[in-house]
Structure formats: C-alpha cells, structure tokens
Amino acid sequence: MTAKQRPQSSPGDRELRLWRVGRALTVTFIAAVLVSAGVFYGLVYLLDVQEIDSTAKLDAKTLFDLVKLSFGVVAGAGALVALVVAYRRQRVDEAGAHREATRLHTERFTQAVEQLGSDSPAVRLGGVHALAGLADDAPDTSLRQTCIDVLCAYLQLPYTPDPGTDPAHQEEHHHYLALRKVRHTILRLIGDHYRRPQGTHRSWQGHDLDLTGVTIDGTMDFHDAVFSGGRLLFSSAVFSGGKVFFNSAEFSGADVSFDNAEFSGAHVSLDHAEFSGGNVSFFEAEFSGGNVSFFDAEFSGCSVSFDHATFSGARVYFNEATFSGDRVGFDHATFSAGGMSFDYAVFSGGFVSLDNTVFSGARVGFNEATFSGCSVGFGHATFSAGIVGFSEATFSGGMVAFGQARFSAGVVGFDQATFPGGLVAFIGATGPAPDGLLSAFPTSVYMSALLPAAWRIPNP
Prior knowledge:
By secondary structure, this protein is an alpha/beta fold. It has 8 helices and 30 strands. The protein folds into 2 domains: about 1-205, no CATH class; about 205-455.
C-alpha cells in the first residue's frame, strides 16, 4: 500500500511575517479613507441630499465645525497609528511566547529522550510518561508528531525474546519483564490518546502512528479509537501472542497497513469497526496461528487488500460484515490451512477478487451471504483441496465467476443458494467438477449453459 504523505507544519511556519511600519501605516490610512468615503457617500445617498447651496457664505459656526473635523481626523490618524503599533507589539509578544514555549519543549524533550535511553527500566518508564506529556503540551502539531515518532521508534528497537525462567538466567528474565512493561505502557498510552476526541487536550487523532516491525506479545487496546486521516502502519509487525483490540474503532480516510505482518498466535479483533475511505492492506501478510476478526465491521468506499497473503493455520472472520463499494482483494493468496469466513456478510456493489488464489486445504465460507450488484471473481484460481461454500447465499445481481479456474479436488458448494438476477459462471474452467456443484443445480438449464461441456455430459 502506498501511504499518502500529509504536510506537517513546522515551528518555522509560526515565525513573524510582518510588513514594515511605513507600509503597514500607508495601507491602513488608505483603507481608512476608503471606508470613510464609503460611509459618507452612503449617508448622503440615504439622506437623499440632492444638491448643496453653493452661494452660502462661510460663517463662524461652519468654520468652527471644520476645525473640530480637522482635529477629529488628526485624532483618528493617531488612533490608527496606535492600533498598528499595538497590533505589531501583540504579534511580537506572541512570537516570543511561542519561541519560549518551543525552547522549553526542546529542553524537556531532550531530558525525556535521555531517560528513555537509560539502562534502568524504571527511568525508561519515567521517560515514556514524560514524552507522552510533552506530546500533550506540544506548542504545535509537528512537535507532537515528533514525540509520537520517538515512542514508536522505541517499540521498533530490536526485540529480545524471553530467556526463560531458568535460575541461570534469572537476572536476564527479570530485565526482560521490566522492559516488556515499558513497551506495554507505551502501547497503552497510545491507545488512550487515540480515544480522545480530536481537538481536545491530549488527543493524538489525525497524527501518524508508525509501528513498522514492532513485536506485539501482549494486550494492545485501541477499542473506540478514531483514526481520522494520517497513517496507521503495522507493516512487518509480529503478532506472537496476546490480544489486540480495535473493537468499534473508526477509520475515516486513514491508510492502514499490515503489509508483511505475521500473525502467529495473537487474537486481533476489529469487531464493529468502521472503515470509510482510505485503504486497508494486508499485502503478503502471513496467518499461521491465532484469529483475526472483522465481525460486523463496515467498509464503505474503502479498499481492502489481502493480496499475496498466506493462510496456513489462522482463521479470519468477516461474519456479518458490510461492504459497500470499492474492492476486497485476495489475489494470489494461498489457503493451505485454517480459513476465512464471510458468513452472513452483505456485499452491495464493488468487487471481491480472488484471482490466481490457491486453495489447498483451507475452508472459505460465504454461507448465507448476500450479494447485491457485487461481482466475485475466482479467475485462474487453483482448487486442489479444501472447501469454498456459498450455502444459502443470495445473488441479486452481479456475478460469481470461476473463469479459467483449475480443479483437481476440493469442494465448491452452492447448496440452497438463490439467484434472483445473479449469475454464476465456470467458463473456461478445467479439471473435474467440484464435489457438490452439479447437485446444487440439478434442473437448471440456465446454469448448465455456464458450465464446461464436460461437466454437463454425464458419464455413461
């Protein structure tokens, strides 16, 4: 997945950009004259003054009024000068306050980073909380992003496995547990800050979160978190145990990447999560154990990719999920064990692509799923074992196509499936008919016309 780069503001963007005094005063006077003229002529128009007696002589009262008017103009000019000077002074004070806040932030940041690099786990833990507090109090978003990046970089440091509880390694084991506590504290703090509403104090929503290559071996709680824009990167991360929760999280316009991630024992839950816009990518991810659940998740205008992923033991659940538009892709994926379930899922529009996918032992189910105007493609897929089931599925529009698919074994079932306007095609498929396929359409002439000729001619 190609992540979109977001422009970041920098402290330099807050520097003063003031005009010179002469230029500022000139512009101010011109603006004042134009406004005054506009007001004067507007009043003349509203009072409907048609003409002025040009023969009237200048008396003392009129002269006195003109003198007062002259002094008023001078006073107004003085007020404008004072206003411009006060404005510039205020701007200078604000810039000075920002520079001072940035300087103090930098000093605290340096101290916190030194704590994070300490040999003492307790001091490191203090550095973690100090950096989180700095992110909360940062003068601008770029400095907050820097603090978040440093916490993520700590999690990306080389991971040393537990040496075990052998008495000979007792000290190393205790050190491992202490540093593990530091890592889990960072993950907990990140989850807490992404749950806070954007724009409020201590909210990190809208910022990038780069956990590339991180090893997750404990609980990480992102339930109800909101990722609005930005990037959430778990590329090449290793989920080796524990539980990761994204339950009811909202991904609105965010790019989420689990590319090359390894799921070897953890339980990752995205139940009830909402994805609107952006991309979710599991490109070349490996599922060798544990579970990944998208139960009742909603995908609207969001591209989901499991292209080139490998399923050799884990199970992935999309039960009751809703897909409205865009693409769900499993191109070139390999299912050798475990499997995937789309039972009761609803596909309205868009495309589910399983082109060139290899099924050699896993189970993939679309049982009682609903396809309305959505196409599902198994082009050039290979079925040598395993089961792909569409029991009691409903196809109201769209197509399920097995074009050029190769069958040597395995089961593809459409038991009690209904096709009110939908279409299933095995055009160009090779090999024997999958077990249970022909029995699903025993009297369907329409369906038989879309089967290879060898499948439609019974053996003598």
